[in-house]
Structure formats: C-alpha cells, structure tokens
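Continuing the batch. This is chain 6 of the set; chains 1 through 5 are on the previous pages. Same settings as before, nothing changed between runs. Recording input and output for traceability.
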Amino acid sequence: MRVLFVFCAVFMMTSRCVQANNWLKNFEEAVRNLSEEDLRKVDPHTIRASGVYHQRAFQCADMSPSSSVPTSVELVKAADIKVIAALGDSLTTGVAANASSIAEVPIEYRQLSWSIGGQGTYDDVITLANIVKLFNPNVTGPSPTFSITGQPTTLSQTGLNLAVTGANSGDFPAQARNLIDTLKNYSAINFTDDWKLVTVLIGMNDICDYCKNKTLYTVDNFISNINQSLHMMMDEVPRLIVNVVQIFTMEPLRQVQKPTEACQLQKVFCSCLALPAENSTDLTEIVALNREFQTKLEELLNSSTFFKNDFAVVLQPYLSSTDLPKLPNGTVDFSYFAPDCFHFSVKGHEEMAKGLWNNMFQQDGEKVQLANLTTSVTLICPPTDHPYIRTRPRALSSAATRGRAFALLSLVTSLAVLFGH
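Output for chain 6:
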C-alpha cells in the first residue's frame, strides 16, 4: 500500500498533488518514460533483513547526566543533551534509506536518518539520536516517521529534522532561521536552559550542481552561507553545540554503478560529478572544487570564531576521505547504498551515525577519519577522565599550548638570570 501511495503522490498529475520542488521535478523527468513494472522492480541489494536487532548492547561505565545543569559548553555530557536537531539535504532527510525500488526513492525516511532518526531504539536502528536516547531516553527532537519529498510536513512527522531534500548551502541560512524560530516556540523545550545538539551536513549539492552555475556554486559563496548561518545560531540560541560534518570526498561515488534503471538516477542527482569522462578537465575541476570546499570549511571552523561559554561549533571530519565499502572480492558493496546508487541505505546511515558519535568524544587533532566503510565502526564510550562532548576548537587548544610553552620559557629565562647563567 505504501508503494501505491508514493506512486500516486509522485506520478499522478492531479489537483491533489503537491507542487514538487526542483529535486522532485528532476526525478519525475528522469523516470517519466519508465513502466510501472520498472518503477516497482525490487533491488535485492537494498532490502534490509526483517527484524534486524542489534543484540550487542552499547553500555558505558557512566551514562548519567551531570549533577547539575552545566553552564560551560566544555562540560556537557551526552546525558545532558535535552534537545537534538538536524539540518542539511537529502542525506539527512533520509531519502531512499529503506527504499527497494525506484518508486520508493522519493520517500524521506527521516526516522532512520543517521543524525536524527528516532524509530524505535538503538536495538532497532543505530542513529545518533538513538544513541543519545541510551543516555537520555527523554531527549526531544528525534524524527518519528517518514515524509514524502515535495509534500508539506509537520513537526509530528519530522521532529527537529528540519533538513530539506535538494538543499544546497544557499538554503542553509533559511534552515538556520527555521531552526531558531522552532526552538524558541517549541513547547517541549526550555529554550534558555536546555542543552541542544544540532548536526549539519550540507554543501555536496553545490558540488553536484557546480557545472550548471559556476558563479553561484563557488567556494566563497559556500563559506559565506555557512558563516552567516552559524553566526545566526551563535547570536540567538543559548546552550547549543553544533556538529558540522565535513563533506565527503565525492569522486569515489562514480564507482557505484550497476546496470539498473534506478542506478541511472545518480546522473540526475549529481550530474556534474557523474557525467564527465575519466581524466577529463571537467572531472579534474570538480574534484579540485570538492577539495577546496573541505579545506576552506576546515579553516573556518578550526578558528575560535564559533566558540563561547555556552556555544560551540565542532567540525567532525570522520568521512572526509572515506573510500567506498567493498566486498571481499574488491567490488562495491551495494548493500550500503539505496537503489539510486547515490544515497545511503540504512546500513550506510548506521555507519555514519557511529562515526559521528565517536568523533564527538575525540579531541581536535585526534578525531579518527574512517579509511573506508568496509569494516563496521565500533562505538566508543566517553572517556572516564573526560566524559564530555569535545568542543574546544583547534585554534584555542593551540593557543593554550603556545601559552604554556611561553610561560615555561619565561620561567627558565628568569631562573637563568637569578642563578647567573
């Protein structure tokens, strides 16, 4: 019945259909000439085994909140997080995460999204929200159910997953404004006192569309959009930690290819990356752009710009250079991908969630960057000697190190003078 509903909602052009966004229009155009049989054809690689249950429970020595509500952003434990939210694009809305056919690709499986999905518990699906729920079962914001791309949503569907399918960095300021206003008016939230955790991943659509408008999708515009949005949050939202996940190295996605109609959608969703010939000038340019996006974002967020007593932005780099998941024979493991060969399946979302959690408790300069997704990520517990989410930016850590070194040098110099050496 769900497939029929999606099929009608997406493909039947009646007065009841919602005005589709650009993403959905591109999708509709790509599948316009396919038969209903092709649209419903099941891709066996993407089917999640029924009744998946994570029997290896995740338990840590200390899963309790602080004895009193922290006043410093550097002393916030996982159990202190009262509100969880997410911003971004189709990867965060969970597009096609549990799809098994083309007809289901426009479903936004927000309840399974790596950063904010709230379906069931950790035992049912591993998401950052469900991991946080192990520490605070009453956290507000996890997404409870799915939505359909291009159709209006309500908070009862999305929770605080305010990401928008098809969004690029130019849409980020509007998402930030929506988040701020929602947090201020959400009756279940104590806006002033509650510690909030927001995860952001955006910018990859800028790269995917770069060749269509090289004036709009520049590095400078990307950084300006990020900078503006984060300043809005810093200026208006108290007690907030923002995870900014570093954008992927996207070139390996070109290897995710198989002879199915659904897999051709990759060329629709990311044509500027998928279509150029190997070793072409166009491909070289897009790869260089991808690298520059990463470099400039790192420069922006490793400064002390977005850090104060009750606010911090943390760059989480765990997927910045990750290679594709592979089978023992060296071929791509398609079980990590949705039928469109572009978005992640639930399996991929779970690895993203675990990698993010681990980065949150690794200090700047020591955050693990995953070499690949072939080996499942093992969750770590917050260190007993520092059970807090790591929020101090590299710039301040380096300054502190330099300060200690300078103080030590001054002391040595003073002693040398004192003893006549």
